[in-house]
Amino acid sequence: MATPIKNNSRLTLAMERTGQWVFSQDIPTDVIVEVGEANFSLHKFMLIAKSNYIRKLIIESKEADLARINLSDIPGGPEIFEKAAKFCYGVNFEITVHNVAALRCAAEYLQMTDMYCDNNLCSRTEDFLSQVALSSLSGAVVVLKSCEDLRPMAEDLKIVQKCVDVASAKACVEANFPSRSPPNWWTEELTILDVSFFEKIITSMKSRGAKALTIASAIITYAERSLRDLVRDHSGKGIKSLDSGESDIRIQQRELLESIVALLPPEKAAFPINFLCCLLRTAIFLRATNSCKQELEKRISVILEHVTVDDLLVLSFSYDGERLFDLESVRRIISGFVEKEKNVAVFNGGDFKEVCSTAMQRVAKTVDAYLGEIATYVDLSISKFNGIANLVPKGARKVDDDLYRAIDIYLKAHPNLDEIEREKVCSVMDPLKLSYEARVHASQNKRLPVQIVLHALYYDQLKLRSGTDEQNSNAMTTRNQLQADVSLVKENEALRTELLKMKMYVQDLQKNQGTSSKGSAKKPTFFSSMSKTLGKLNPFKHGSKDTSNMDDGMPDLTKPRRRRFSIS
C-alpha cells in the first residue's frame, strides 16, 4: 500500500485509492516507487508491462532484487504517477484538459509508447489532445496553462506549439465572427496564461494577419487582469498600502509590464490614451526601464489631442493621490506633441508661431486646465509650473483665461511668494489676451503683482481712448504702446520723487539760516533761486500723469493740451 512520508491529506487520499486497486490483485507488492513526498507499493511485473523506463531501471540495477525506485522528477508529481500506474494496472481513470498534458509528459518520461506496447499511454493522450482538448479555444488555453510547469518537456513534445496554433487561429476567427456574447469573450480566456505563452499567441495572431485593434483588445484585457491593482485603478483609492520597493512581487510585476509593453503593435493609435496613461503611471511606480517608459511616452504624445485632464492627472500623482510624481514624463509628452505639430506645419508650408492646428489648441486648453488642478499642491515649484505652461506655443491660446485661472490658483496655494516670485509665475501669461471678464477680475485681484494689475487696467483705457473694438485691435501695437507708457509712468514717478526731496532739502536750509530782520527786504540766495526755478519747471507738460505741481500761470494756448486717462 502507498504510504505518505508527510501528513498531506491530498496525497493520502490519492494513495488510499491506489492501495485499493493494488491490493485487489491479491498478490504481494515487490517494489516501492518514491515520488516526491509519497511512496507507492506496487508490482514490478505490472509496471514493466507498460513502462520501458522502469524495465530498464530494474534490468540495469546492480541490486539483485531492486525493491525501491525513485521517480521524484516525473512530470506532474504523485497525482500524475498514480494515473500512470492505474493505466499499467488496467484501472479506468479520467483524462481531462487539465491533466492530459501532464499525462502525455509522464508517459514520455516512463517510455510508455506504442513501440513498447500497443495502445499505450502516449497514444491515448495524443488522441485525447487532438480529438477533444484542442477542438476548442477554451480547451487549448487550459491545456496551454497546464504546460507552464511542464517545460521544457511540453515544448519538446510540441504540446505548447499545438496549443498556440489552435488558440491563435480560433481567436482570430472569434475576433472577426463572434460566436457568443460579449464579442470579446475570447480575450478573457487568454488572461489565465503566463505572459510568455500569451506572447506566443499574440505573435501567432500577428503572423495570421490579425488587425491591430484585435491585438490591442487582447493586450488591454490581459494587462488589466494581470496588473489589476495597478492598471485598472484610476483614482488611487484603496491602494494606499502599495509600496514601490524592490519586493519580489514588484520585480515580477515590473517584468510583466515590460513584457506587455514589448507586445504593443507598431500602430500608435491602436490603444486608447487613458489605457496608455495608466500603463505609464504603472511603469513609473514600478521603476521600469527607460526604454519602456519612453515607448509609452511616444505613443501618448502621438495621440495627445485626445487626452483629458484626468488622463494627465493619472500620470502626475502617486496611487494614494497624496504626492506628485516626477512631472518629467508629462513634460516630455507635451514637448513631443508640440514638436510633431511643428513638423506638420513646416511640411504644410505654414507658420507654426502664428497659426496652430485645432489639435494644438485643444491640447493647450487641456494643459491649462491640468495646471489648474496641480497648482494647489505646495510641493509644485515655480520652475515646474512655468516649464509646463511654456511648452504650449503662444499662438495656441486664443485667450489666456484658463492659464490665468491656473496662475491665480497657484498664487492662492502659495501665499508666501514675494513680488519677484509672483511676477515670475505671471510671466507665462499675456495680460493682453485676457477676456474682459478676466481683466476685471485681475484688476481686483490682490494676489497679482502690481505690474499685471497695471496691464489689465491700462489696456482697457487704451481701448477706450482709441475707440477700437476688442476683436479687431492690433495686439502687438497695443503691447508696444503699453510698455512705452508704463515706462514713462515709472520715469515720471521717479522724477517727481527727486523734486520733492530737493524742495524739502531747500526748505530745511532756509529754516536753519534764520533772518536778522523780518521786515527788511532780503537778497535772494542761490538756494531760493534754485527753488523757484525748479518750481517753475514742468517736466510733465507734454504727457505727465501728475499735474499737481504745474505752474499756476496761464496755460500755453498755442498747443492743445494732450490728455490722458489716469491709472492711479
Kindly estimate the percentage of residues that lie in beta strands according to DSSP. under 5%
**What is the C-alpha radius of gyration, as a whole number of Å?**
42 Å
> Which runs of at least 5 residues are low in confidence (pLDDT < 50)?
1-7, 234-241, 468-473, 516-521, 539-568
Query: In terms of structural class, how would the helical and strand content be classed?
Result: mainly alpha
Number of strands: 4
Helical stretch count? 26
Question: Strand order across the biggest sheet?
Answer: 1-3-2-4
Largest sheet: 4 strands, mixed
Helix content: 55-70%
Pathway: Protein modification; protein ubiquitination
Protein name: Root phototropism 2
InterPro entries: BTB/POZ_dom, NPH3/RPT2-like, NPH3_dom, SKP1/BTB/POZ_sf
Domain NPH3: 184-463
Description:
Residues 184-463 form the NPH3 domain. Residues 29-97 form the BTB domain. Pathway: Protein modification; protein ubiquitination. Residues 537-568 are annotated as: Disordered. Pfam families: BTB, NPH3. Mean pLDDT is 81; it is low at 1-7, 234-241, 468-473, 516-521 and 539-568. A 4-stranded mixed sheet has the order 1-3-2-4. It has 568 residues and is mainly α. The protein has helices at residues 9-23, 44-48, 52-60, 77-89, 100-109, 121-131, 137-146, 153-156, 159-176, 185-190, 195-207, 212-226, 228-232, 248-263, 273-285, 290-302, 309-316, 328-347, 358-374, 382-389, 401-413, 419-426, 436-443, 450-466, 475-513, 526-536; strands at 3-4, 31-35, 38-42, 68-70. It is elongated. It has 26 helices and 4 strands. β2 (31-35) and β3 form a beta hairpin. The longest helix has 39 residues, at 475-513.
